[in-house]
Amino acid sequence: MRVLILSQYYAPEPIPKISELAEALRAHGDEVVVVTGLPNYPSGDLYPGYRLRLVQREIVNDVCVTRTFEFPYHGTNVFGRIANYGSFMLTAPLGALFTRDIDVMYVFHPPLTIGVSAWIISWIRRIPMLYDVQDLWPESVVVSGLMKPGLIVRLLAILERFVYRRATHLFVVTEGARQNVIAKGVPPEKVSVMPHWIDDAPFHAVDHGAGRCIRDENGWAGKFVVLFAGNLGLVQGLETIVHAAALLAGNQQVKVVFVGDGANRAGLQKLAAQLNLREMVQFIDRQPSDRMPAYMAAADALVVHLKASPLSNLVIPTKTLAYLASGRPIIMAMEGAAARLVTDAGAGRVVPPDDPAAMAGAIQELMILGPEARDAIGRSGQDFARRTLSRNVVIPQYRARLQELSRVARDRRTSPGGQG
After folding, report:
1. CA separation (Å) from 281 to 18, 54, 117, 243, 271?
2. 63-68 and 55-60: which strand pairing?
3. Which terminus of the chain faces fewer neighbouring Cβ atoms within 10 Å, N or C?
4. pLDDT, tens digit (0-9, with 9 covering 90-100), for 133-165
5. CA distance 14 to 286
């Protein structure tokens, strides 16, 4: 099978799903080519070793990668985001011209604009596309505060329906997201629920010594560490975690730690300073992906938070899977699908979003439980992830769908009256 993967993000950017899929397909003997942008996520700064060029090619872990120009930006300015998304939308089809014959295309969404590139490539190359909807647009950009309901959002909704109709098949993460897409006019048979996966091997390889080293180097000795790892963005609503820390300021044992970068990091740091939490709330720069399992193992509890909205009930932040694999208790400050996942896994505590008091209560509850009870909760989540969400379980389902689409398209081309 010859697969084109289209994604605005790719390694070394910290969104491992696309590179893991590419490398897994390559390991199965499939021919894989990737068309992606210039690495600048999540800071918006171009990564060292790259420069602004229209097209450049490289080999990343035995996968052929073609990068096309995009305007590096990931801040809060709407026009900067439009320039970022729009530039890649226009140049990505050029990258497809450099690829060999292909049978099927996998598309990672967001942003929504990549769907336009995918449609152009699919039309030019006459190939089916599997469109993987990880984030529902335009709802997510409204929730993030980047845009307000109005003409642009209505135009995005029209574009969304255009892209969905032209996809051969769509994947969504939850049943709620599936119903959302169907309500927008997509035939039910074109939409499947397909969960995230996690490569849990690096988490099982972490030893206690690595966790102790992390605690020592960051000054966590004797602290109950509550960790948020990942994108410090607007839609996450992480101010709730800072306000929860303020409610616990009298407890010298609690340490709240943010590891990562993003559009809202400066705002969170300013809030922590205003609340006199400089000693209690710690900000650590984004770490290499191979260090994150040790950071999670070093924490006493891991927290997920997303702003309350109808959209948040339909999604499961991908960090949840890493948290499960880490074997640490989770505080899930969401409702809907993400809350059900943590409950089904027996992996922690669920509290309402945007509720600092409830989050502070969950932190206190886990702290009182003691290390043995917390370890048992963590193991429950880890076992659940291994059984149902590991890459060895989920990626074969992706490959099977890609093979099916490829086979159907090949049969149509070679049948009487087809294109072949």
Report:
1. 32, 42, 42, 10, 10
2. antiparallel
3. C
4. 988 776 666 666 666 777 877 888 888 899 999
5. 9
